[in-house]
Amino acid sequence: MTGATLVDHSMLEAALKRPVLKRSLFSSPVKIASVELFKSDKYHFVQVRSSDGVEGVAVTNRRAEYLYPLFNVQIAPFFKGKDATKLDALIDELYLYKNNYKLSGLALWCCQAWVEFALLDMLGKIAGKSTGELLGDIRQTEVKMYSASGNRGNTPEEEIEVLKGKIESSGAKAVKFKVGGRMRHNVDSRPGRSPGLIKIVRKALGDDISIWADSNGSYDATKGIEIGKMMESYGIDMFEEPCPFDHLEATKQVADAISIPVSGGEQEASIYRFQWMIKNSVVQVVQPDLHYFGGFIRATRVARMAEVAGMKIIPHMSSGDTGYVETIHFASFTPNIGAYMEYKGGIDETGKWYEPPLRFKNGAINVPKGPGMGVQINTKLLRRATKMV
Questions:
Q1: pLDDT tens per residue across span 291-337
Q2: Are residues 227 and 250 in the same domain?
Q3: Which letter does DSSP use for residue 6 in this model?
Q4: Are residues 204 and 353 part of one domain?
Q5: CA–CA separation, 317 vs 32, rounded Å?
Q6: How many H-runs (helices) and E-runs (strands) does the chain carry?
Q7: Claim to verify: residue 113 and residue 167 sit in the same structural domain
Q8: Which CATH number characterizes residue 335's domain?
Q9: 232 and 349: one domain?
Q10: Among candidates 47, 113, 41, which has minimal Cα distance to 352?
Q11: Reduced DSSP (H G I as helix, E B as strand, rest coil) percent helix, strand, coil of the chain, to 5
Q12: Which contiguous run of DSSP H or E holds residue 109?
């Protein structure tokens, strides 16, 4: 946005280095005895166990189907025998283990995230604390969601009906729609669709709905500015990822030229690129993905840097079903969390692996109660599970 100023680097570094996990909750070390990846039906989950027999479980996203060799060779062996209460340090050390820094990206950080989720579930059971209580102070127990549409091939008029349907069925007070051709350099998904939709969506949905638009890196700087200014004129509230995710200078040009917030960061793997983005106001809302970026601790470090700069954080959710538990726990304790988290549908699927299942009602999801993640893996899935080797 216009008028952005540089943030003091030393303040960002200080925010980055503060511990995240509350080690004071534990009176003694918690030795990690096992870290294993299982498959049951089409679902994958990580199970960890302490030397005292306390278990933690986390459902992965679908990428475990092809990332399991990396998980078994580069990730799981590192954690075995370590003290789980030193989780902050372990995450930093994993980066160096077997030269994992050469693999830095979605593949590495997804695998780490799944272990971290399971370890936090285990640690929460040991401490009698929820994930949010392990990592911060609880600020909300009900998390408001925005309803996201993934359509690109329909007409503007058809998409308006889709968005209306999402609002009516969910009670959501915010929606997001797609513009552009998804990383296709200024080529729309169908001729005229994006401008046509931008021009009618506010009038169609009314003034009480927050409206966001996501291009998934569709534009160069010039076209992104043009589309962004059109969004300004027609009442769009936020512009997500106007330029390809690694085109940081182009993204900054768009952010500097328009008055509505620009968001981004869902594909980002580097904490220090996030730091640069925050320091230089490349975006106004940061969006690390809790799976893609490596879990709660790394995402919390980004949130703290963003807070120094007066920015909000709204995590991207890479999976429309398995990611809800982590997203709403993260929102429960993060002070500079955005007003709405991402809802992509599929929440009914959670009943196939979580007990109790999550519910999306009146535009919000309740944070699961109880220690750790507050949910149990369906016992039928556990019985049918086979180890991924």
A1: 999 999 999 999 999 999 999 999 999 866 668 999 999 999 999 99
A2: yes
A3: P
A4: yes
A5: 28
A6: 14, 16
A7: no
A8: 3.20.20.120
A9: yes
A10: 41
A11: 45, 20, 40
A12: helix 106-127
Rounded to 10 deg, the angle between the 296-308 and 271-279 helix axes is 20
Cα(10)–Cα(356) distance, integer angstroms: 44
Domain shared by 160 and 99, yes or no: no
Q: Is residue 115 part of a domain?
A: yes
Q: Which domain holds residue 27?
A: 10-128+379-387
Rounded CA-CA distance 87/297 in Å is 8
Residue entry with tokens 């392990």:
134
The model's pLDDT over 137-155, given as tens digits with 9 standing for 90+, comes to: 999 999 999 999 999 999 9
In this structure, what token pair is assigned to residue 45? 């989950």
Backbone angles phi, psi at 245, to 5 degrees: -60, -25
245: amino acid identity, one letter: F
Establish if 265 belongs to a structural domain: yes
What is the CA angle 311-121-356, rounded to 5?
95
Q: Are residues 123 and 243 in the same domain?
A: no
Please write the tens of the pLDDT for every residue from 81-120: 999 999 999 999 999 999 999 999 999 999 999 999 999 9
Secondary element (H or E) of residue 279: helix 271-279
Q: Which long-range contacts (CB under 8 A, 24 or more apart) does 234-237 make?
A: 234/198, 234/199, 234/201, 234/202, 235/202, 235/207, 235/211, 236/198, 236/201, 236/202, 236/211, 236/212, 236/260, 237/210, 237/211, 237/212, 237/261
5 within domain boundaries: no
Distances (CA, A) of 168 to 117, 161, 163, 164: 33, 10, 9, 6
If one counts the domains in the chain, the total is 2
Q: Cis peptide leading into 356, omega within 30 of 0?
A: yes
The answer to whether residue 2 sits within a structural domain is no
Q: Which residue has the tokens 């900054």?
A: 252
